[in-house]
Amino acid sequence: MSKRITRRRTLAALGATGIAGLAGCSGGGNGTGTDGSTDTQADTEASDDMEGTTAGSSGGASGTVKIGVLQPVSGDLQYYGKQALWGFSSGLAYKAGGAPQLAAETGTQTVSVGDVDYELVVRDTQFSADRAQSLATNLVTDESVDMLFGCTSSGAATRVIQTVAKQAGVPLMIGPAASASITSESETCGEQIFRASENTAMDARSGGRYVARESDVSSVYLFGADYSFGRAVVNNYEAVLKAEGVEIVGKRFVPRGYSEWDGLLQNAADAGAEGIVGGFTVATLPNLFTAYLNGEYSYTIFGGFATEITNSVVGSLLQNQLGKPLTREKLDGLGVGPFTTRYHWNQYDNEINSAFVEGYVNAYGKVPDLFTSGTFTAASAIVQAVEESGSTEGADIAGALRGMTVADTPKGTDAYTFQEYNNQARSAMTVANVVPTADEWSDSWGAPIQPSEPVARIAADETTIPADADGMNCSL
């Protein structure tokens, strides 16, 4: 009871200048994310594949943690929200020693871990910053949530941070929104703003190190989408490549959906590029690949493995170019990849990941995708914070999260650590080749191509923006 009174008093103290007065503010319209997709609701049949974990104790805490969840669970981009919720569900299930239970739908759903009930109030953001702000305001003022989890859109996440979470003093676990600026700029980072999910800087810093240290490429041309995602990819690749002695022979930002690639790709060739980087989502990447595959260029394309939907589109383009079936021999020497990946189901060999993959496939009919390790870890970290603090209060959970090394994650034991200077979790990243989808995964991965087994791993202490770097403008 005291928990609810504390929340009400906090909200009342905000008065006319609080979050309720800002619910209609506009700050740029819909947010932007990392790529887009459509998907149908997967089967949520329960299983016992997560039984046998050592979790289930609440560490002396009891009661309810009420979490407001902000994810897109309808519309063209619903697959993002599904990944986020299914990953979060799997993290709670692992800690409880059971099977994933949460469905990607609005409403209230509860998962119990020991003596603590995690009550998730799920709201559909529809990938809109305006809607996310309004829903977050409602969750804090009317639902009295202890903390928030979301968003998928970086624009929506930024809006919720600035107009709701910071003003109300409510802890917010961002995910899977990936813009590096969320945890690197003073306007958005904060004592109660956390992110377990990997970000665009981690993509680029990992990929840049691989290009510089493991390939023969000595000159690179950088391309990126002209918004936060693409700029973060390009800027971080540029910083790492320059530091490693690789020459940047040009860079260009283009609008999402840009299709006039022949001239730009020729510009990169004329500039002497031995490699190009494409910081794009599914809105632009197919056009780039089509032009590249139809031309004759001697350089290699680098970048990041995205979600199933992007791999479906790119895989189809490769099938059209190379013929069916795709084989490793056809893909070798094509000049496509290897690519970095934040997470895919086959990149980590450990007991936690094995349980995660099996339980996720049985519950949702899909293999865990790009965003799922980060949101699994977000849930795992929240439960660990409750256990370590012995409290279900949002402020106490936030206090325990600061500097935490998360014990149970798909990348292994103790594989994510929240950095004290910006509350961004660092974790290892991998690099993989493009290979045809293996028969064993064809029913749960709907793309013709998939990541290979890892060809390189970048250690956690090398993946994030350092505290003293020019691009780090957050100091908590």
Summarize the structure.
By secondary structure, the chain is an alpha/beta fold.
Helix/strand-derived category reads alpha/beta
> Can you give the helix content as a percent range?
25-40%
Largest sheet: 6 strands, mixed
CATH-level-4 superfamily name of the largest domain = Response regulator
- As for the number of domains, it is 2
Give Rg in angstroms.
22 Å
Number of helices: 13
Strand order of the largest sheet: 2-3-1-4-5-6
Ends: how far apart? Answer: 31 Å
Question: Architecture of the largest domain, according to CATH?
Answer: 3-Layer(aba) Sandwich
Number of strands: 16
Keywords: Signal
Pfam family, one: Peripla_BP_6
Organism: Halobaculum gomorrense
InterPro entries: BCAA_transport (IPR051010), Leu-bd (IPR028081), Peripla_BP_I (IPR028082)
